[in-house]
Design a protein that fits this description.
Chain A is mostly beta strands and 116 residues long. Chain A is 0% helix and 49% strand. Helices cover 0% and strands 51% of the residues of chain B. Classes of the chains: A mainly beta (116), B mainly beta (116).
Chain lengths: 116, 116
Amino acid sequence: EPEVTQTPSHQVTQMGQEVILRCVPISNHLYFYWYRQILGQKVEFLVSFYNNEISEKSEIFDDQFSVERPDGSNFTLKIRSTKLEDSAMYFCASRRQGGVSGNTIYFGEGSWLTVV
Amino acid sequence: AQTVTQSQPEMSVQEAETVTLSCTYDTSENNYYLFWYKQPPSRQMILVIRQEAYKQQNATENRFSVNFQKAAKSFSLKISDSQLGDTAMYFCAFMKHLGANSKLTFGKGITLSVRP
């Protein structure tokens, strides 16, 4: 069964450094998402992406964050200058357009980011 | 804005018994989608079951079933014949439509422990 894959699974970075989290969504999916989960808290929406542009972003997704689909398969989240409070699990997710499963968002295994 | 409430922070159940996890939500939409996701200690987000609001019939997936009460805005998950592998955090989630800016809104989650 196709899966959303994310790299790295765990990254430790120093405060102020740039981080890029990478995702390969399921191949026939057209909607892409990033969510984050701070340890012990609920899963929060960051941004949705469709047709090569951001369709919605949350208030968490400030100017330090950006997303890109550099080619036909990858979907990346960049944090320009990391802060301690950016430490969290970041989930990439995707959804197809229409069809039986078109109403379901599938998640990757997450990238655990630790900012020190 | 949509909100999802999971008021029970944790529950425990004996192996082979049945447990029900509660979820309520608030929306002014008429058509929407509801989900339960499971997050085991590995922290991956795994879809358990989904329900389309326009369907009156409650969704069922093997040992998992829901009790969807649209008027009451209630969406509980019943796990029958609980297994040790069901030990996880369970999140209830809401998605209001399938447009470009569709996204999941999660509840805070409930930690379920299955006792041997």
